[in-house]
Amino acid sequence: MKPAIRKSKIITTDDILLTLCRSMSGVLSKATQSSVTYSAMVQKITKTSLKPDFGCFVLFDGGFSGLVVTNFTKDAALELYTKYMRNMGMPAEELAILHTSDEVGDVLGELMNQIVGDFTGQIRKTLQTTISQNQPKMLSLNKQVILSVDTNLDRPQARRVTFTTENNHIFYLELAMDKTEFIQLEEFEQEDEFDADDLLDQHRLSKKEEKKQESNQDFDDSLFDELGI
Predict the structure, then answer these.
(1) CA distances from 146 to 68, 143, 174, 206 (A)
(2) Contact indicator for 53, 72 with CB cutoff of 8 Å
(3) How do the pLDDT tens digits run along the chain, 229 residues long?
(4) Rg (Cα) of the chain, in Å, rounded?
(5) Environment class of residue 209 by beta-carbon count within 10 Å: exposed (0-12), middle (13-18) or buried (19+)?
(6) How many whole angstroms separate alpha carbon 69 and alpha carbon 186?
(7) Cα dist. 220→30, 213, 224, 229 in Å?
(8) Checking DSSP bridges between strand 9-12 and strand 156-164, what pairing results, if any?
(9) What are the C-alpha distances in Å from 112 to residues 35, 119, 209?
(10) 96, 75 contact by CB (below 8 A)
(11) In sequence order, which residues have a C-beta less than 8 Å from that of residue 112 and are 6 or more positions away?
């Protein structure tokens, strides 16, 4: 009896897009403490572009090359900005009320940085390859700007996915990259999930414990001094 041939697992461009969508939904939902979802349907497009009111783009390179574009309407931008800042403890009266404020663009740029960082971490863990990205560029726009990837793509593909905020405001994610497949030849153990929040909590607890020990030590020393020991 011939041994069965093991079927190789294949990861396609659309699987990579799904990973990016999950990173965006997960990071934004956690950062804003609200529901940010994406459509189950993806749209094939022929070109990527920055559109009003906010456009952000990130180039990545390494195991594969590509371009990530996110286009926010002013309502979606303000909602994400406001909920993120409120979640960080900022009083409502100190928040920007216009989408053209520099603070709104800065916060969206920081959130995009977190999203792409999570995405590259997932790619490293699941595909065992490394990609690097530049700093996200966030622009306030009143006209459409066409973007293309400055690299040699043999079979370029572009996709657009619709995202919806908790208040039903819409924004769009676009991905352009070369058509590619990753084929898993052997089983491997994925790295443990890295959670920056857990690390910060551990750091805070460690600092509190150190301060507690120092306080106890100061009390013991002062007691010994009074007793002449």
Answers:
(1) 13, 10, 12, 49
(2) yes
(3) 444 555 668 889 999 999 999 999 999 999 999 999 999 999 999 889 999 889 999 998 888 888 999 999 999 999 999 999 999 999 988 999 888 888 999 999 999 999 999 999 999 998 888 998 888 888 888 888 887 765 556 778 899 999 999 999 999 999 999 888 888 887 767 665 555 555 445 545 665 566 566 556 665 566 556 655 5
(4) 23
(5) exposed
(6) 34
(7) 44, 10, 6, 11
(8) unpaired
(9) 17, 10, 34
(10) no
(11) 56, 58, 70, 136, 138
Token code pair at residue 124: 């490293």
Amino acid identity at 181: E
H or E stretch covering 176:
strand 170-178
Residue 191's identity, in one-letter code, is: E
**CA separation for the pair 173, 143 (Å, rounded):** 18
| d(C-alpha 187, C-alpha 175), whole Å | 29
